[in-house]
Each structure stands twice: as C-alpha cells, then as structure tokens.
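quick one before i forget lol
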Amino acid sequence: MPDVAIRPAHPGDARAVCAIYDYHVAHGTASFDSEGPSEAEWAGKIADITGQGWPFLVAERGRELLGYAYATQFRPRAAYARTCENSIYVADAARGVGVGTALLGNLIDRARECGFEQMIAVIGGGEPASVALHGKLGFVHAGRMRNVGFKFGRRLDTVYMQYDLTGEGWGNE
C-alpha cells in the first residue's frame, strides 16, 4: 500500500491503538470484550510485548495510525514457547485498502525472526474479513469452537487458523 509505513510500536502509540480497538469492541465481534483497556493499559501492553522481544507493529500514514498488529506466546506454558498468537486491528476508515495485508505480512516476518515456528489466529465471531485476510496470507483453518461467545444479542463462534512459520508445512494430513 503506497505511503503507508509499518514500524515498531512504542508506548506513545497507546492513544491511537486504544481508539482503534475501542471502535471494534463497540461495533464488531472480533473482540469479545465489552470494553477495551485504557490508554495506560495499552501503553503497558506495548512496553511488555516489545520488552519481551516480540513484535508489536503499527501502520501509519503521516502521523495517523491506521492499524496495529502484535504477536505473543500462544499460551504461557514452556511447551508453547515457539508458538505465537497474533492480534490485528485496522481503523474503520482504513479497512479494505491493504493495511491489514501489509501489517500481517510484516508481523509474520517479525514473528519468524523472534524464533516463533507457528502462528495461531483466534478469530472472534469468525469475522469474515479476518478469516479472508488470514487465508490470503496462507493461514489454514485449524478449528472452530461453536457458540462460545455472546455479544450483540447473538451467539458467536471462534475460528482458529494456523500459519507454519518454518515453511515446512504439515505434510499430507
């Protein structure tokens, strides 16, 4: 996407990250939150994730943040140390123009550089745009948990998708 830069996040990005996430909390089902973290909590999360050497990226045009993405260890147990979970959100006004593709593509590269070997997407509500984005970049369906969320008066599924960061694939399963 022309004139959009992808860069590492810093705690000063917390206000914009907070606003992007809050929009999705209020209007979508990708997040099962009923309210998002505060700006201070986001600043702490950015510092914590980057402090562990994991990627937290933002997409910006000029001084406007258009989206963010990060990867953290999938679960805290030692056996999951090489598996990460991604999170990606794009500002409503910037959806559908390639920001998500640029962010997720860069996140995949950075996660691989961190030593992660598998990336898991946990897609709340089975959001079609998120499923399509992940599929476009090579994620495969890994499962669905049915009716595990309830938001906006309806039951919601969670879709799991997986990307092999090693490039080895899974063979003929």
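fyi The two ends are 35 Å apart (CA to CA).
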